[in-house]
Design a protein that fits this description.
The protein has 209 residues and is α/β, with parallel strands linked by helices. The chain has a single domain, classed as P-loop containing nucleotide triphosphate hydrolases (Rossmann fold, 3-Layer(aba) Sandwich). The protein contains eight helices and five strands; from the N terminus they run βαβααβααβααβα. It has a five-stranded parallel sheet with strand order 2-3-1-4-5, sandwiched between helices.
């Protein structure tokens, strides 16, 4: 099986991926933070190098998807190729960094890739408000995230909503995380596990909590 965790920056994707992998004995797959050979050029001239940058990321995520498809283990993935396309590349396009021609070429490549792979068995979408995301980002204190513009985070959130509810055609479990602390509260993690069980195996908890 292939399980994907989706959600904006600061929503808790990596934490939930780790916890569910431990609970079920699944293999966690985290997005590689490998060097992108276009990154340096991209920041010098964003419109010129956006297509190159995005195609490289697409290639790497597609390789991950092919490897997951071939695995005999159940893989739980922190962020999927779909978010890279419908959220982050779409945001780059909306900011004027990709021309219509370049974006059409990119989407044509992505759609061709999708002809030979299938959707994850379940995508778990961690739905969070912007204030909740900001609080989590501040709490974990990564220097490179502290200067992230609020408008950018809000834009990403809007695109996540559009992606999940309008564009993505696979099976989705939506988890509202604003009032959850599944990292420190085992009962709240158990509530998520019950929902995952129900979606994957048709099982429900004996307790209605």
């Amino acid at each position: 099986m292939h399980i994907a965790i989706a959600g904006n920056i600061g929503s808790g994707k990596t934490t939930l991926t780790t916890l569910l992998a431990k609970h079920y004995g699944w293999i966690p797959h985290f997005e590689a933070v490998d060097y992108n050979p276009y990154l340096e050029d991209y920041y010098k001239d964003i419109p010129r190098w956006s297509l190159n940058l995005e195609v490289f990321f697409l290639k790497e995520r597609f390789k991950d998807l092919l490897a997951i498809a071939k695995s005999e283990n159940t893989i739980i993935q922190d962020r999927s190729i779909y978010e890279g396309v419908y959220v982050f590349t779409a945001t780059n396009k909306a900011m004027g960094n990709l021309s219509d021609r370049d974006f059409d070429t990119y989407m044509g490549l992505f759609e061709s890739m999708m002809m030979i792979v299938k959707y994850p068995d379940l995508m778990i979408y961690l739905r969070a408000s912007v204030p909740h995301l900001v609080a989590n980002i501040q709490r974990r204190g990564r220097d490179y995230e502290q200067t992230m513009p609020l408008d950018y985070l809000t834009n990403l959130n809007d695109r996540y909503e559009d992606f999940i509810f309008n564009k993505y055609k696979g099976k989705v479990l939506v988890v509202d995380v604003d009032d959850l602390d599944f990292q420190h509260n085992p009962k709240e993690l158990a509530q998520i596990v019950d929902k995952v069980d129900a979606n994957l195996f048709g099982l429900f908890s004996d307790q209605d909590e």
